[in-house]
């Protein structure tokens, strides 16, 4: 029955497509995601110009934003504009808008916490990179790069750029700009004393960036690194910098760069260069303190160009050289301006949302505020959606390499960790902390929605609520209440207290109060105390914590395919301290210092190094991935509370072409997969 | 009858009735403390404020007995629930025993808001001396008797927070913490002031000069940055209990200068009085002269100062905890409770979380009114119109 039904409907829709497609060819309606007009790109919802013209049988003529001259005039130092066809690359990217061809104009209002605090969400609205994750978060699609090619063993990645692609100041963008970024900035010892680990591969070796010609560039990796392409799809760092702009500040191209810097009262050329570059694309504005800062703006390839930066907010205007057009030939973006305001108080930010002043916000919108936002929907004329929050759940870790040997033995006993996991009533935590929008789940270093090798059994390991079994396990370990205060003592009768130092940024204090009540009931005394994030990280990185607590970050498929740090000891990174520092020290020192890891932990090093050498989803990747999570589930070094956590995000009803924003995650860089450049505003 | 009217009548030569002379006799033979009390009694507002404070203090002291639940007991079926009303009648009729209706909260599937649902069919009768969470009564013996409670389910006079903890109980525990911080802080400040001010005033000369300059230094330090610095300096491995004691200590350590100045000034003006000189000639030592002869002469000032500095201590704790510098959960104090209430969510959906604020306001007002009354009464020898 069903089969026949599907056949019939597909036949009808195919007929519809043919008829509508012929209409499009007649120029009456353009192809969109909602109504493709029979046009399907090689990559989801997008085409190269040649591909589009061939498939639609129609030659695209280009249109521009009627305000573009006015906007261009606001970009510091930009020359007068050529025609739109001359500004676009020879082969622009053609995209199908989600719902309809948009309307130019309008200001997108956003809100962030402060300069460099909670701003990545709004940065992602204008972000571009060589490639992009499509909205399924699986398919990698072209963006700045027209295409790419791997060699057979994933050691050489060739990128093909768009001929005639231009920076936001009209200067050509070529492979030399990628070469400049890596060889002259990232690898320059004066810029970075230590090369950022993001850009090292295998045994901390750099890749080799080789210019083939103006639009072709090869990256050669020391080990198979299929995750590198993923990196260029999800990372906020842009692997290209405007060489023509930085040449005058860089010592290699301008021997007098040092004098330039001292003219501006700066110590060195790197300091001056960093006023614009700032080490990443995070700080993409000249420091307002710099002498003559207003004379410059660093050119960009993003959809919007920064024109004003103050301590109160940022303002960006549409990039007149942006390389994307819609299926009707209109140059994107549709939206004239981005107006980002900084408000550090969460409650005030909440008010701006309920008042309907914000067009889009995902980062730092919390489930606890969902009820007030939901009730304000109609008066504020916005909509609040629940998306999958990858990395929005929370994890407790046990310091199995504790400096206190007695505690190390207890925390290192898997029964102890199993018992404390069983003692937690996850259903109740989910009801109170996650407002019922999650499922009880054990921690694994691979987010189950983003990889294929995590099974239901993995997720259910010791994730049930079984206080009896918990007490039994603790009794078995010989941890008994000797002095009758209802708390267990260590085997030698001395006090057993776990101290949880937590930072507010890691998660809500209510969570710890709940966990304390469960563990107290099991007879394990927990002391909780708040510290600052810096203190937490410092103590964590110095192996001074009993327990770690942080968001479940850096475990999505997109991250673990590039980085092994969550998969093998010490199970963490600088911002999210781990729990096995001495094991890792042993490994790094070839057994000279530190503590010898358990056999399972040793295996993880080998497995993790193999895992990152295969493409995510390939049989080998799944095989090694499964072995890794098997070991983690068996050892339970960290315990998780919830999975499939739903978390809210907000978009104004005037914001159109809103895509299927189904995953809200920093790991996939917020809005970037959902193509904010085709959003438009009504009114 | 006031002192002035008695004395004027005595001075007149008209006949004095037996009753009046008896009263006059009482007046002249009364001790200083009796006189203070007699006069204070006339200040009705202060008397009332004093009563309120005593009640609050007792509430804090006996919090574990007076509150139906412990500060961490969670009613899992009633999260973020509004206060319950105590009733004597409902649709089923009148009951001599007070009761509340059964309540639960349920999440609205659309707004995800917790909404309270009253079940009028269920009556929960209030019982006195009910068994509940066990605790150590004043740290002496273990018991589980609470002043009141309900047989089945829970009773929440002030509603619950989002973990389902009884706000009434938590407010009582918070009262204990906040008031004790005030009291201990004032006592520490008082002892310091007595010693420092006493030494400065009695010794005089360069000692006095040094102490005075030191006092000035302490006084000019802006308080909030000082607290911030000290709060950051607390060792990380301290428990919340130790932080609590450290906070009282700090509040006391910076609270002494005003009182020390006053004591020093008084001693300075009195130390050359004849009776002090007489004591000194008789061979009394400095501590005895200060303690036995000088201090009693201006006890009233000290009392007034102490009473007035209480609310500052309490407010300091509340303010520091509110901005996150003072006590932090799981400690319970007025400041901690109010900090949890500072969100739009609370204003719109759970206004009962502000109930602890009423306690703060009442306590501070009561202290102020009490201070007013004590100031009038503290110097019973002064002549007033009353």
Topology:
The complex is a heterodimer of chains A (683) and B (386).
Chain A (H helix, E strand, L loop, with lengths): L1 H24 L20 E3 H8 L11 H7 L9 H4 L5 E3 L11 E6 L7 H7 L4 E3 L6 E3 L2 E6 L5 E6 L13 H12 L13 E2 L3 E2 L1 E6 L2 E5 L6 H8 L8 H4 L10 H7 L5 H8 L27 E6 L3 E6 L5 E3 L10 E6 L3 H9 L5 E2 L8 H6 L1 H4 L1 E7 L5 E5 L6 H7 L2 H9 L3 H8 L5 E2 L15 H5 L6 H10 L20 E7 L5 H14 L2 E7 L1 H9 L5 E5 L5 H4 L20 H8 L10 H13 L7 H17 L2 E3 L1 E2 L2 E7 L2 E2 L23 E2 L2
Parallel strand pairs in A: 2-14, 3-15, 20-21
Antiparallel strand pairs in A: 1-2, 4-5, 6-7, 7-11, 8-9, 10-11, 12-13, 13-15, 16-25, 17-25, 18-22, 18-23, 19-24, 26-27
Chain B lengths: L2 H9 L6 H12 L2 H11 L1 H18 L1 H4 L20 E4 L2 E15 L6 E24 L3 E10 L16 H37 L1 H16 L2 H11 L6 H14 L3 H14 L3 H8 L4 H9 L4 H24 L11 H6 L4 H6 L5 H24 L8
Helix pairs in contact in B: 3-16, 4-6, 4-16, 6-7, 6-9, 6-10, 6-13, 7-10, 11-12, 13-16
Provide an overview of this structure:
The complex is a heterodimer of chains A (683) and B (386). Chain A is of the alpha+beta class. Chain A folds into four domains: 2-53, no CATH class; 61-127 and 302-389 and 645-683, Periplasmic binding protein-like II (D-Maltodextrin-Binding Protein, domain 2); 129-285, Dipeptide-binding Protein, Domain 1 (Dipeptide-binding Protein, domain 1); 395-639, Roll (Dipeptide-binding Protein, domain 3), CATH 3.10.105.10. In chain A, 31% of the residues lie in helices and 17% in strands. Chain A contains 24 helices and 27 strands. In chain A, strand 4 (131-133) and strand 5 (140-142) form a beta hairpin. The two termini of chain A are 47 Å apart. With 386 residues, chain B is α+β, with helices and mostly antiparallel strands. Chain B has two domains: 75-171, no CATH class; 172-352, MetI-like fold, CATH 1.10.3720.10. A four-stranded antiparallel sheet of chain B has the order 1-2-3-4. In chain B, helix 4 (44-61) crosses helix 16. Mean pLDDT of chain B is 83; it is low at 1-13. Chains A and B meet through helix 11, helix 12, helix 16, helix 19 and strand 21 of A and helix 15 of B.
């Amino acid at each position: 029955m069903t089969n026949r039904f599907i056949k019939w409907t597909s036949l009808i829709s195919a007929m519809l497509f043919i008829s509508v497609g012929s209409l499009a060819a007649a120029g009456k309606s353009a192809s969109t995601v909602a109504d493709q007009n029979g046009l399907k790109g090689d990559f989801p919802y997008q085409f190269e110009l040649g591909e589009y013209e061939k498939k639609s049988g129609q030659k695209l003529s280009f249109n521009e934003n009627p305000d573009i001259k006015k906007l261009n005039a606001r970009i510091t130092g930009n020359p007068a504009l050529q025609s739109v066809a001359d500004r676009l690359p020879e082969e622009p990217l053609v995209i199908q808008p989600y719902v309809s061809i948009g309307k130019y104009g309008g200001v997108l209002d956003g809100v962030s916490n402060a300069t460099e605090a909670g701003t990545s969400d709004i940065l992602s609205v204008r972000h571009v990179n060589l490639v992009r994750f499509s909205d399924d978060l699986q398919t990698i699609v072209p963006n700045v790069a027209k295409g790419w090619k791997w060699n057979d063993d994933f050691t050489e990645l060739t990128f093909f750029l768009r001929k005639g692609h231009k920076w936001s100041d009209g200067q050509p963008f070529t492979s030399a700009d990628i070469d400049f970024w890596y060889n002259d900035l990232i690898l320059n010892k004066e810029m970075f004393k230590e090369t950022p680990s993001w850009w090292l591969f295998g045994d901390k070796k750099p890749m080799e960036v080789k210019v083939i010609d103006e639009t072709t560039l090869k990256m050669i990796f020391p080990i198979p690194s299929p995750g590198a392409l993923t990196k260029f799809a999800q990372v906020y760092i842009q692997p290209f910098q405007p060489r023509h702009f930085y040449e005058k500040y860089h010592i290699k191209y301008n021997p007098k760069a040092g004098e330039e810097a001292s003219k501006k009262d700066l110590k060195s050329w790197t300091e001056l260069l960093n006023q614009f570059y700032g080490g990443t694309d995070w700080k993409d504005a000249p420091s307002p303190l710099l002498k003559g800062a207003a004379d410059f703006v660093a050119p960009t390839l993003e959809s919007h160009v920064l024109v004003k930066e103050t301590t109160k907010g940022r303002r960006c205007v549409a990039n007149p050289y942006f390389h994307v057009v819609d299926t009707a030939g209109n140059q994107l973006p549709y939206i004239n301006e981005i107006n980002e305001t900084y408000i550090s108080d969460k409650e005030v930010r909440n008010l701006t949302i309920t008042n309907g002043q914000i067009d889009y916000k995902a980062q730092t919108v919390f489930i606890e505020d969902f009820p007030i936002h939901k009730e304000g929907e109609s008066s504020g004329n916005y909509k609040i959606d629940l998306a999958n929050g990858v990395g929005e759940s929370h994890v407790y870790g046990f310091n199995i390499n504790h400096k206190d040997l007695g505690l190390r033995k207890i925390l290192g006993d898997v029964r102890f960790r199993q018992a404390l996991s069983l003692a937690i009533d996850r259903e109740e935590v989910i009801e109170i902390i996650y407002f019922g929008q999650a499922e009880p789940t054990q921690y694994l270093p691979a987010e189950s929605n983003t990889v294929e090798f995590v099974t239901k059994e993995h997720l259910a390991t010791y994730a049930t609520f079984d206080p009896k079994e918990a007490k039994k396990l603790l009794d078995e370990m010989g941890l008994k209440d000797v002095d009758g205060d209802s708390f267990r003592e260590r085997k030698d009768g001395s006090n057993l207290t776990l101290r949880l130092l937590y930072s507010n940024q890691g998660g809500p204090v209510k969570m710890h109060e709940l966990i304390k009540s469960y563990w107290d009931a099991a007879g394990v005394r927990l002391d909780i105390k708040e510290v600052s994030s810096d203190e937490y990280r410092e103590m964590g990185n110095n192996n001074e914590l009993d327990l770690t607590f942080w968001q479940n970050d850096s475990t999505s498929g997109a991250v673990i395919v590039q980085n092994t740090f969550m998969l093998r000891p010490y199970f963490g990174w600088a911002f999210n301290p781990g729990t096995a520092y001495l094991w890792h020290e042993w490994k790094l020192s070839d057994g000279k210092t530190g503590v010898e890891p358990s056999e399972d932990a040793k295996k993880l090093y080998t497995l993790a190094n193999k895992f990152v050498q295969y493409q995510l989803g390939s049989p080998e990747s799944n095989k090694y991935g499964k072995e890794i999570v098997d070991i983690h589930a068996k050892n339970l070094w960290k315990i998780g509370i919830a999975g499939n956590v739903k978390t809210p995000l907000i978009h104004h009803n005037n914001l159109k072409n809103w895509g299927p924003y189904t995953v809200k995650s920093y790991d996939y860089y917020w809005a970037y997969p959902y193509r904010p450049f085709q959003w438009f505003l009504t009114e | 009858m006031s002192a002035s009217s008695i004395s004027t009548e005595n001075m007149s030569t008209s006949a004095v009735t037996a009753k009046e002379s008896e009263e006059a006799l009482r007046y002249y033979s009364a001790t200083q403390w009796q006189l203070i009390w007699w006069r204070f009694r006339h200040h009705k507002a202060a008397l009332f404020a004093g009563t309120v404070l005593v009640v609050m203090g007792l509430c804090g002291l006996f919090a574990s007995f007076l509150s139906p639940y412990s500060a961490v007991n969670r009613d899992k079926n009633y999260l973020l629930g509004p206060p319950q009303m105590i009733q004597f009648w409902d649709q089923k009729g009148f009951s001599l025993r007070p009761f509340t209706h059964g309540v639960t909260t349920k999440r609205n599937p659309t707004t995800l808001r917790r909404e309270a649902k009253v079940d009028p069919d269920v009556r929960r009768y209030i019982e006195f001396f009910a068994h509940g969470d066990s605790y150590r009564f004043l740290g002496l013996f273990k018991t589980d008797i609470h002043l009141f409670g309900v047989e089945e389910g829970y009773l929440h006079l002030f509603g619950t927070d989002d973990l389902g903890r009884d706000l009434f109980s938590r407010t009582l525990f918070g009262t204990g913490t906040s008031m004790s911080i005030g009291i201990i802080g004032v006592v520490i400040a008082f002892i310091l002031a007595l010693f420092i001010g006493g030494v400065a005033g009695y010794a005089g000369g360069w000692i006095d000069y040094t102490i005075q300059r030191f006092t000035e230094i302490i006084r000019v330090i802006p308080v909030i940055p000082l607290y911030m610095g000290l709060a950051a300096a607390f060792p990380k491995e301290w428990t919340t209990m130790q932080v609590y004691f450290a906070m009282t200590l700090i509040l006391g350590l910076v609270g002494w200068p005003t009182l020390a100045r006053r004591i020093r000034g008084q001693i300075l003006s009195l130390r050359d009085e004849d009776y002090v000189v007489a004591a000194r000639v008789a061979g009394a030592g400095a501590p005895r002269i200060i303690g036995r002869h000088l201090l009693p002469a201006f006890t009233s000032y000290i009392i007034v100062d102490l009473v007035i500095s209480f609310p500052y201590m309490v407010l300091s704790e509340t303010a520091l905890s509110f901005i996150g510098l003072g006590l932090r959960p799981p400690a319970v104090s007025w400041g901690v409770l109010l900090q949890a209430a500072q969100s739009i969510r609370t204003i719109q959906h759970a206004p009962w979380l502000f109930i602890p604020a009423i306690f703060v306001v009442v306590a501070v007002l009561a202290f102020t009114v009490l201070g007013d009354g004590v100031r009038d009464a503290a110097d019973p020898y002064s002549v007033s119109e009353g």
